[in-house]
Write a structure and sequence with these properties.
6 helices; 19% strand; 6-stranded mixed β-sheet; alpha/beta; 36% helix; 6 strands; 190 residues
């Protein structure tokens, strides 16, 4: 067997091992339940970069604005004021004025527009705990309490979770195995 064939076989073996680890992790995560925290939890800023009007965008954004949580804000960010997501985001800001803001993020800070939006949204965040997730994720009312419960432990600085759920019809057709996840982190003390 020549060197190229050995390299290809090793790469295929590594890829197979990676996918087995992913499946094992996903199975374990899907069976585990988050603890719902009771008592005071830190204020949190939710950053949701938007691009395009996904199916069920209103429902996804609205689910973040009806959380059973004491102090939080939802920051929606678009790079283009003419983005198709803007009318839906404006409707959500009118219906949930105490929790949600829409920001236009005009600066291009690198090649990745989503990351560029997140950097500009971060500068406007009011709280030292952040949660970042995609615009098409719908969440239950106890979502923030489940995620922020991990921060009751002062040794925890961040958490990441791949979400299992049902994709909206248009997304299922476009990407039937798309991963949906969140990232939560502690930046400082509120």
């Amino acid at each position: 067997m020549d060197l190229a064939a050995k390299f290809a076989a090793a790469a295929a073996l590594c890829a197979a091992a990676y996918y087995l680890i992913c499946l094992w992790s996903a199975f374990g995560i899907s069976r585990q339940k988050d603890a719902v925290a009771n008592g005071p939890l830190p204020p949190v800023s939710i950053l949701k970069p938007l691009h395009g009007a996904d199916p069920e965008l209103y429902e996804a954004l609205g689910s973040h604005c009806t959380q059973d949580y004491a102090e939080y804000e939802v920051i929606l960010g678009v790079s283009d004021p003419a983005d198709p997501a803007v009318p839906v985001a404006e409707q959500v800001t009118r219906e949930f004025p105490g929790h949600v803001r829409l920001l236009v993020c005009p600066e291009v800070l690198g090649a990745n527009r989503k990351l560029s939006n997140l950097i500009q949204m971060l500068a406007q965040a009011r709280h030292g705990h952040l949660l970042i997730n995609d615009s098409d994720i719908q969440v239950p009312p106890d979502y923030l309490r489940r995620i922020l419960a991990h921060f009751k432990d002062p040794a925890v600085g961040g958490t990441h979770r791949q979400l299992a759920g049902v994709l909206a019809e248009g997304l299922r057709e476009r990407d039937p195995v798309a991963a949906r996840h969140h990232l939560a982190c502690r930046l400082g003390v509120d």
